[in-house]
Design goal:
5 domains, 4 helices, mainly beta, Jelly Rolls, eight-stranded antiparallel beta sheet
Length: 585
């Protein structure tokens, strides 16, 4: 889909004074009697679910495609997270965000040829990481950081193809390990919980492609597949070194110098063969010179690593793309269940209908856009004495409203999920693809194993909630910034250019007004937004975050107009007006 929007403007009257100085880029330009939105710079200013609009350099806008399954290597650089300051030397991908040490997905560390290691994540099978032949084999390792926790089902290791002009070998022997990011020695330790994935079982000289299916390590529901992974370590355990391949002398001489390996000089004496130096060999009688053996040097070249997952987890960044997480418990930090980290947890209060915690234990998730969702995963990690889930109910809504104005909900999981009697830690609820904008997670204890039903505050540990969708967004909404027309002007017609494949459509809407207003927005330090009352009276001072000011349409603005479905239509929003906004769907 490609958008280009033009609004014809007719001047009604000119107001004295200057337009508002926004101090930032604008998502439009005024050109005489026209307001135009046409460039990539314009579209990047418009409000859209973060990461859901693909804006090309030429100025076209298309919804992103959500893959299932997905290779987590492909977008590793899109994810970053906070690191304890004492771990700075253990990561090669760190940077500073103010005073906060951050790490970005990429090559965490490499024991040899570190500057070349990122090539195994570039998607190009012609590039490669080759450990230095001068380093010991025990230093031939590389660690990959995916930038977030994923549900990985398969790890693929590809070695470079060999040719006469570009010699390449697989690792003679190697192992693959994975880690979630937990440390067996506690928070702040540089050690990670690496566990064995797979590797060679015998020396290998020819196989270039290895695929390792991986199973969960924790107790999981029957629907669950794969293992929780954030880090992957590949380490060579054996090498042929300077004796990779026996060659004829003329073949050896034809090699480039870096490919030439050892030359063995053979001393034949008493029916035995012994290796001697070149100098000693030259001194031997002719009958004792057993000849020379020429070898090609091993060129161990790892081309690509792929980490295949059940799909793209759309829960990460849910707030950043305009979504919302609503937990009635003001001290809770539900965003920790959507940060892609195994080391953080949301303390979910068990649902109750009585006492001071009445109606706590219900988390409502606004995904920030309408998605085609087909699975939700819930990950629980025992930490600090907290208990795993006693049970839960999952509901979904596409945003449709009931007659009383509330959302219409459908239950998405089976009744079996309401009672966890086997201490299951990994849950998956899978269902046919359906349009979902909102999800509701209700932490329940139907067996009354706790005293939550009496109003007692009981918590369960929820480490991550992963949400999986597939395909293009059913609907992508982009909203312009406030457009200052510099004076009150009459809006005449609206025009646009769009490519609409079969089954798709583009609709535009407008609204207009003369006045603006400012509001303050209150955030906890974890990024969760709360109202001003909760911020001032219920959120502890050490959890209080930023207060921001936002300029919004003021009194007297019109509602969004009816949709314009054909280019060239008359603008329906009231005019003349000083300000306007445009929405494209």
């Amino acid at each position: 889909m490609r958008y280009k929007t033009l609004i014809g403007l007719g001047v009604s009257c000119l107001l004295l004074g200057q337009g508002i100085a926004w101090g930032q880029a604008r998502g439009y330009r005024l050109r005489g009697d026209r307001l135009e939105v046409a460039t990539s710079a314009h579209w990047r200013v418009w409000e859209a679910p973060a990461g859901m609009a693909d804006i090309s350099f030429a100025g076209s806008v298309t919804p992103v495609f959500i893959s299932s399954p997905a290779n987590a290597i492909e977008n590793h650089g899109d994810f970053s997270y906070e690191l304890p300051g004492n771990l700075a030397d253990d990561y090669d991908t760190t940077y500073r965000d103010g005073n906060v040490l951050m790490a970005r997905g990429g090559i965490k560390k490499a024991g040899s040829s570190a500057s070349l290691a990122a090539r195994i994540m570039d998607g190009n099978p012609r590039t490669f990481w080759e450990p230095s032949s001068t380093d010991a084999v025990e230093n031939w390792w590389v660690e990959i950081d995916l930038g977030r926790l994923v549900s990985a089902t398969r790890i693929v290791v590809r070695f470079s193809e060999d040719s006469e002009t570009n010699r390449a070998d697989p690792f003679l022997q190697f192992k693959v390990h994975s880690a979630t990011g937990q440390s067996p020695f506690g928070t702040g330790s540089s050690s990670l919980d690496f566990t064995f994935v797979g590797g060679t079982t015998q020396p290998n000289e020819d196989q270039r492609l290895f695929e390792f299916d991986i199973d969960p390590l924790l107790k999981a529901t029957d629907e669950w597949s794969g293992r929780l992974v954030q880090y992957v370590r590949i380490s060579a355990t054996a090498s042929r070194g300077a004796r990779a391949e026996l060659m004829k002398a003329e073949e050896f001489e034809a090699l480039v110098p870096d490919d030439r390996g050892s030359i063995d000089h053979v001393w034949v004496i008493a029916g035995e063969e012994r290796l001697v130096s070149a100098e000693r060999y030259a001194e031997l009688p002719a009958q004792q010179q057993g000849g020379m053996r020429h070898y090609r040097r091993e060129r161990p070249r790892l081309a690509e690593v792929e980490v295949w997952t059940v799909g793209d987890n759309i829960s990460i960044g849910i707030v950043d793309r305009g979504g919302e997480l609503r937990d009635p418990n003001p001290a809770a930090s539900p965003r920790k269940a959507f940060d892609g980290r195994i080391t953080t947890n949301w303390s979910a209060v068990v649902y109750s209908t009585v006492g001071a915690i009445a109606d706590w234990g219900v988390l409502t998730m606004d995904l920030g856009a309408l998605f085609r969702v087909n699975a939700v995963r819930v990950i629980t990690r025992l930490a600090g004495g907290a208990k795993t889930l006693f049970g839960y109910q999952l509901r979904g809504s596409d945003g449709s409203l009931a007659p009383d104005g509330t959302l219409v909900w459908d239950v998405l999981n089976s009744e079996d999920r309401q009672l966890n009697i086997s201490s299951t830690r990994l849950f998956e609820d899978r269902f046919p693809l359906r349009n979902v904008r909102f999800l509701e997670f209700r932490n329940i204890d139907v067996a009354r194993a706790t005293l939550a039903y009496k109003g007692n505050r009981i918590t369960s540990t929820v480490t991550e909630i992963q949400i999986f969708a597939k395909g293009f967004l059913p609907e992508l909404v982009l909203t312009s910034d406030l457009i200052d027309l510099q004076s009150t002007r009459t809006l005449t017609t609206i025009d646009w250019d769009a490519d609409t494949p079969a089954g798709s459509a583009v609709e535009l809407r407008t609204r207009s007004g003369n006045d603006l207003r400012e509001i303050n927005r209150y955030f906890k330090k974890d990024g969760t937004e709360v109202d001003s009352t909760a911020y001032k009276t219920k959120v502890p001072s050490f959890q209080q975050g930023d207060i921001t000011t936002e300029v919004l349409p003021g009194p007297g603005w019109s509602n969004w107009s009816q949709a314009y479905v054909a280019p060239g239509e008359i603008v329906r929003s009231p005019s003349p007006r000083r300000y306007t906004m445009i929405q494209a769907t």
